[in-house]
Sequence to fold (483 residues):
Amino acid sequence: MIWHIVTRELLDHLTSLRFALTTLILVALMVTNAVVHLQTHPERIRKYSENVSASHTELKSRTQLYAMLQKGPGKLYKRPSSLTFIADGGDAFLPSKSVSGGFWRLYGLSYIWAMGVPRLNMDAISNHRPTAVVIDWVFIITYLLSFIPLLFTFDALSGERERGTLRLCLANSISRPALLVGKFLGSLIAVLIPFYFAVLFNLAIISTESWTQLSGTDWGRVGLIVLIASCYAGIFIAIGLIVSAMTRESRLSLVVLLLIWVTAVVFMPSTLGTLSTKWMPSVQTHHQFRKAKSTAFDQILSDFLNKRETLKERRQSAGTSQEAVAEVETSELEIQREFVNKDMETREQLSRQHLAAQSAQVLHARQITRCSPAAIVQYALESMAGTGFNRHLQFLENCHLHTRQFRDFIVEMDSADPESLHFIGIPKGMSEKPVSPAAIPMFEDKLTFQDTLNSAIMDILLLILLLGIFLSGAFLVFLRSEI
Fold:
């Protein structure tokens, strides 16, 4: 019986003008998306490859451990996502490489490379929508795959009630739950057919370019993204059935649904995102951040000078004893090592704190905007596509892990030299033996399927929960409504 209702609903939708217009619009937008991606993505990949190659060449040219420690692992670049056409993620507002901080030389000492914080455009990334509309899958799914289901369901029950066919259907052996399930499935299939066709057309065009070939992992992420979009469409079909079951006129149902769509998809995400940034305390500005680093460095330098002064008094009282002089010289190297390493650790600690404060604001704003299904699906698609703010945080974490691995390599190579004094950070205290370029660890930015799924799992579960809530609501409303 349910299959009969699904078939009837599906045939009615397939022969309607709204189905033809839906297919035409979705295909046109997906073709536009594919063409733009083919024009921009290959250049983005080539530029990334050139930057990485230049960074590796520069790093391999350093053969001394101290030079490697001072200059660090070089510039670390974020790999462009192969699924940028799905979710742009505001990547234009996010830095594409790591930065270092600290440029001083005094008392014969130099700074050690420290992992810094790339500057962020907080006003841009805190907003739910970019200033310029990007025609990616997120735009198509967020707006059209929420609006189209309402057009397919606004008269699903109210129209039948107006024509008197609803009473006739329920007078037979058809139960209300079976009728509602049939209408839900029929509408869902009718909405997804043009969407799936447009998606396949989009992927077929993108696959024609060798620079945009997708890997097996990428295809798995695309499949999950399509399922997320299907769940999102199901939510608005359920909302359409709820309103259609509550109203007796299809015109009234359409007006109510349009108001709901404007509120949930257009108004709530952008408005709540803007208000949330005003409710939260302001983040430390870049000028304040640099001032805090300068103050911390002054404190470290003051401690260093005090210890040097104390050591100078010890040197004067040591006399000509060789043992005492050697002990003083060792203490001098120890103080110098403590100074340069403390400076490096403090700069990195302040950078991580600054990043944590920025991230907390953005993530808090996203928690508030998750009141809208449109915001939830956007964040889920960004995470699965490997773009957006969560991806940027993963990239910075990869940079920190590589920096730690790079320093461990330097310590290990220095420890292997018996002639070294093993004072890391001091030119006189480190090994001078050349390092083989092949042994130097190179940074390679990676993003696994598990990484994308972990960052998207909460949003996916929220979408599934909303689908269950609204579908249950449709059943309750329809069961209690008058025919």
In short: Residues 126-132 have pLDDT under 50 and may be disordered.
